[in-house]
Please model this.
Amino acid sequence: MNWIDEVVFDADGLVPAIAQDGQSGRILMVAWMNREALQETVDTHRAVYWSRSRKRLWRKGEESGNTQQVSAVRLDCDGDVILLTVEQAGGVACHTGRESCFFRELAQADGLAEWKVTDAVLKDPETMYK
Amino acid sequence: MNWIDEVVFDADGLVPAIAQDGQSGRILMVAWMNREALQETVDTHRAVYWSRSRKRLWRKGEESGNTQQVSAVRLDCDGDVILLTVEQAGGVACHTGRESCFFRELAQADGLAEWKVTDAVLKDPETMYK
Model:
């Protein structure tokens, strides 16, 4: 059985992929892959996703320069989530210019909860995409 | 705006949730939450998911004892993925008795690729669910 046939793509032909920084262990982002994106990721060791909004392959960093070098590809027990270990070029994965897309944390106090931004903007998005 | 209204649930009312071990930084599992599961997770600091197969709330560890104490809840930039920092009771998150559900890694050599199991079974699933 081909390795890619063990991956369970959903009804839209997609599987979620988590990118984790190999150095810090931080979760940088979650995006989607179709079969072609996953195959190209494995072949080139560069993260390639499927952009659901643009409906095309999204070679991470193709516009921003923030590519991801992939050192490991993992699959979960039921085969429907991919986990990539990556080295993040420029130290910025998020389109907002932050290291991680998970830059909001729920703060709870006195029975109230709200999302607090915990991460600094490291790179100006304006300059990142021009 | 209520914090939970900033979470983008999909057409089925679900959002994927990643559980990351706060000590090791390892990704333990990915599951789904509906609004009720997320609210209960935040209220109780115990991970509660929505079981798509059983179509009911799944209080992680309710059968196996492998509960997850939640120390942080994060949200990504487009609001459609939750990241939990957890302390995994028993050190086992996967129903196969392994620490992590991501126990397979793609091994590539001589142009061939295959999934290799990299994690030991720490607890016998037979005893875990009886």
